[in-house]
Amino acid sequence: MTDTDTPRRPGPWDPRPEDVAAKPVPAEPARTAEAPLDKGQHPVWAVVSTALLGGFIWYVTGSWVIAVAAIWGLLVHEYGHVLAMNRLGMGPARIYIIPFLGGVAKSQRLPQSEWHGVLVSLAGPAFGLLAAIPFFAGFIVTNDGLWLQGVFAIALINLVNLAPAPPLDGSKALGPVLARIHPMLEKAAMVLIGVVVVVWGLTNGSYIFAAFLGLALIGHLRRGVWRPDGRQLTWGESARSVGLFLLTAAACAGVALAALMPVTGSLAEALSLGARYFEFGR
């Protein structure tokens, strides 16, 4: 086959010159309007949701200190996500309180890269530990061990969130690392750990928590694409992700042990008591 620029006579199937002249020029496609910004949770519903969640925690634990600490720790934890989202161009982010369950930070845009997603996921547990400072101060001033219950509750909230089970923060921090090795490794690990965490919740009486994680796991499995839009982790970023995850987990565990040691009297006893909270069927 050859190609030539030699002009040729019009054939019977060629359009007539007058038809070409009369044919309207298609208009440029309209630009897609940017999605409206999320206005966030209505203030009245936010107050009601917070009151329901706090009342539920108070009913379950029988301690107003734990209830206040859990709500305060939850807000600081979610605000850590918000700060990271806004800093990385995903904002303005909003916090939503879910009655009887917890909270969630919602961004306006997807992360530009999986590395940004990892930083956002770990910002909640890392920043959330700052919520323990007022309760440590309360213990130092009053020497009342009741304040340490609040410290332990805050540390536990952040530590549990690091479990790599959808949709907890740990799954968003370690999931991209596992997918970098092989996508099926991420799916297998998330499903296995998700099932273990659901069984843990059921055997320990945390039925709402277990039901929430079970539904989230099913929803995660039904998603067509697991990874968000954006650049994939590099191998260097994968190593840093694992390192930051381990550091954050160690910090959460350290704060929990610091709350238990004045009560137990030794590190060994504090480790033993802390481990009981993660036993099945306790």
Provide a descriptive summary of the structure in words:
This protein is 63% helix and 4% strand. The chain has helices spanning 17-22, 43-61, 64-87, 114-128, 133-142, 146-160, 169-181, 183-203, 207-222, 235-264, 267-276, and strands at 94-98, 102-106. It is mainly alpha-helical and 282 residues long. The N and C termini lie far apart (79 Å). β1 (94-98) and β2 (102-106) form a beta hairpin. A two-stranded antiparallel sheet has the order 1-2. Residues 2-8 and 28-32 have low confidence and may be disordered. The chain is built from eleven helices and two strands; from the N terminus they run αααββαααααααα.
Short account of what is shown:
This protein has 282 residues and is mainly alpha-helical. It has helices at residues 17-22, 43-61, 64-87, 114-128, 133-142, 146-160, 169-181, 183-203, 207-222, 235-264, 267-276; strands at residues 94-98, 102-106. It is 63% helix and 4% strand.
